[in-house]
């Protein structure tokens, strides 16, 4: 059994236990939290990058097929060429998909 002689030893023991528990907590969550953060960050960039392209895709598809059509799932946006916009590339992709279906 641990025998404590004064209050300072008790405080030191309490602090060292807290440090050990904190270190264990950090080691367990050090890997999990950055992974969650990177996944959420990656999804947010993907959603933001696809939004303009997908709006153009939907508009282009509806231009050919009409307004009362179910628009297919938006494809992965290509790299936007210089002098173009993601919306314009989405328009072209939507028109092409509608004409080929």
Please describe what this structure looks like.
- The chain is mostly helical and 101 residues long.
- The chain has one domain.
- Helix content is 73%, strand content 0%.
- It has 2 helices and no strands.
- Helix 1 crosses helix 2.
- The chain is elongated, with a radius of gyration of 28 Å.
- It starts with 6 loop residues before the first helix and ends with a helix.
- 12% of the residues are buried.
Following the backbone from N to C, one meets helices and strands in this order, namely: HH
Main sheet attributes: strand count, strand direction, barrel closure:
none
Which band does the percent of strand residues land in? under 5%
Distance between the termini: 79 Å
Total DSSP helices: 2
Query: Count the strands?
Result: 0
Structural domain tally:
1
Structural classification: mainly alpha
**Shape call:** elongated
Uncertain parts: 10-14
Radius of gyration: 28 Å
Helix content: over 70%
State mean pLDDT (0 to 100 scale).
74
List strands and helices in order, with pairings:
Layout: H1 7-65, H2 86-100
């Amino acid at each position: 059994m641990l025998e404590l002689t004064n209050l300072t030893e008790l405080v030191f023991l309490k602090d060292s236990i807290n440090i050990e528990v904190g270190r264990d907590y950090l080691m367990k969550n050090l890997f999990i939290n950055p992974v969650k953060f990177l996944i959420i960050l990656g999804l947010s960039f993907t959603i933001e990058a696809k939004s303009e392209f997908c709006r153009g895709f939907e508009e282009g598809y509806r231009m050919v097929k009409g307004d009362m059509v179910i628009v297919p799932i938006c494809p992965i946006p290509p790299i936007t060429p210089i002098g173009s916009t993601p919306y314009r590339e989405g328009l072209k992709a939507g028109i092409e998909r509608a004409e080929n279906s």
